[in-house]
Every structure is written in C-alpha cells, then in structure tokens.
Amino acid sequence: MVEKVAKLLREKKTVAFTGAGASLESGIPTFRGKGGLWEKYDPQIYASVPGILFTFLKSPDKISQFFVDFYEVLLKAEPNSTHYALAELERRGSLLGVITQNIDNLHQLAGSKVVSELHGNAYKFRCRVCNREETRDKKEVAEFLEEVKKLHTRKDLIRKLLSFIGRCECGRRLAPSVVFFGQPLPEEELVKAYQLIDKAELLLIIGTSGVVYPAVNLPFQAKERGCQILEINPELTPLSSIADIKISQSANIFFSQLLEYLG
Ligand code: NAD
Questions:
Q1: Atom of ligand 1 at shortest distance to CA of 104?
Q2: Atom 16 (ligand 1): residue with closest C-alpha?
C-alpha cells in the first residue's frame, strides 16, 4: 500500500485534511476517544463562548484549572510521523498543503508551511475588531501555567487569565483564536482551505471522525469535483463512504512506513 500511495503522490496534486487522530500518537487524546479533556470538562460549557464566559466570571478557578489541564497536554506534545511526513512531502513538492481541524500547532512545528487551521490555534489570540493576531510561545504558556497554579483568590485568577490572553494594540481585549461551538470558521483559513480543495486531485483524509460541520463539507466538495479520496483511519467514518482507498491503520504507523519508503 505504501508503494501505491507513493506513486499516487508523485502523480497527483495532493492535499491533506487532518483531525484529532493525526495527533493521538503525539499524546493528545482525540475529542471522542478515551482519556480526553472532554471526559472531565463538559464541552457544552468549556467549548462554548457563553459557557466559558459565565464560568470565568462565576468560578475563575475552574477556568484556570481547565487552562492548566488543556495546555499541559499540548506543551508536552511533539509532532509524530504523520506531521513530519506531510511537512516532508510539501518540502519535496508532493503536497500542496494541509487543512487541519486541529489546534495544536503540530503541523507547523514539524515544518509544514501551507496550513489552513479551520478551528484556530491554541497559541494564537486574535483581536475581533482589527483582526490582529498575537502568538504565545511554549515558554510563555509554561510560565503562565506555573504562575496561575500558585494563585487562589478570584481577583488574582481573573487578573492573571486576562493578562495571559492580553490586549490588542487598539486597546481591545484579544480572544482565543480557537473556534468555539457555534462560532463561524475564520474566513481567511476557510478561503485558504477552499483554494487547496479546488486544486486537489488527491485528498488524504487523516484521523478525523468526519462529523464536525462545516469542516466536513470540504472533503465532500473535493469528491464532487472528482478528486480521489484516500482515508487513513483505523475506524469507519461517514467519510469512508466517499473514500476510493481506505487504509485502516494508525496514521503514525502508515506515515512512518511511507517516510522510510521515500528515504
Ligand atoms: P474526533 O475525536 O471526532 O475523531 C478522531 C478520529 O481519529 C476518529 O475517527 C478515530 O477513529 C481516528 N483515529 C484515532 N486514532 C487514530 C490514529 N492513530 N490514526 C488515524 N486516525 C485515528 O476528531 P475530529 O474529527 O478531528 O473532530 C473533533 C474536533 O475536536 C475537531 O475540531 C478537532 O480538531 C478537535 N480536537 C483537536 C485536537 C488537537 O488539536 N490535537 C484534539 C482533540 C480534538
């Protein structure tokens, strides 16, 4: 199978579409899998703007603990063979880019340059008015976590959380770039994603359950355009029905074999 995929990659303009399964072997649990953040935190509250704002004002200790649990997993995560292979394929001119639903920054850490982040990035904060974006690096996030763990009063916690998120040069508060339930996808990222889909002759769908809308419209659009679809996921998903090739394997294992084959 590795040989067949390597041949396709040489012949076709290829784009990758990734989800949480691509980062599982980097140590980040999937959304619906076991041991994830969402077993402890109700996503209806912690992944929705009204829920998180209400909890922030009522119990900032819960939000600071959520930040600690969320970022501690992300800070430890390193790219795996999937991220490295996609970056390497792009470098060799065999991949046009990656469209990801992930917010963990691992594609960029592995070296991918063309990345459409449909659901934002946990390290980026954006001004909703002038659209300016600021990035916190891993060191800044780690320092914030150490400091916030020492705070206990409501006032101190609120102050620390707000100063971590920060203000734009225009004076307004920044907001996480991560897309919460019910929020629209960032327009720039969506435009980038559709530009990639419009050029794709082969779409690699990697580690997504294919149930998150509107992101999942992209593979369907690619299929309608006649793009060949290759799905890499140990489980069957709603996208399996449009896949021309299905690889029922861990993405990390498949891409480490591909990297080895490509040399
Ligand atoms: P999901 O949790 O709904 O589905 C994960 C998919 O990955 C499943 O279909 C599962 O079978 C598959 N999978 C599990 N192990 C795999 C492996 N080793 N190789 C390949 N596939 C594997 O994730 P989703 O479809 O991405 O949707 C959930 C939402 O939550 C998305 O927005 C997602 O990006 C976000 N999320 C992001 C992260 C992250 O940034 N790493 C982590 C969790 C959730």
A1: 40
A2: 21
Residues 240 and 232: their CA atoms lie apart, in Å, by 9
Contact predicate 23/106, CB 8 Å: yes
**pLDDT tens-digit map of 103-132:** 999 999 999 999 999 999 999 999 989 999
CB–CB of 125/133 below 8 Å? yes
**Which candidate, 99, 87, 81, places its Cα nearest to that of 208?**
99
Pocket probe mutation, ligand 1, options 23, 73, 124, 208, max atoms within 8 Å of Cβ: 208
29-76+124-177 CATH choice from 3.30.1600, 3.20.20, 1.10.1740, 2.60.120: 3.30.1600
Report H helices in 47-111: 49-58, 60-76, 81-91, 106-110
Q: What is the pLDDT of residue 98?
A: 98
- The radius of gyration computed from the CA coordinates of the chain, to the nearest angstrom, equals 19
Cα three-residue angle 192-214-5, rounded to 5 degrees:
65
Whole-prediction pTM value? 0.95
Q: Does domain 1-26+79-122+185-263 have CATH number 3.40.50.1220?
A: yes
Active site (annotated) includes residue 119: yes
* Domain boundaries defined on the chain: 1-26+79-122+185-263, 29-76+124-177
Phi, psi of 181 (to 5 degrees): -50, 135
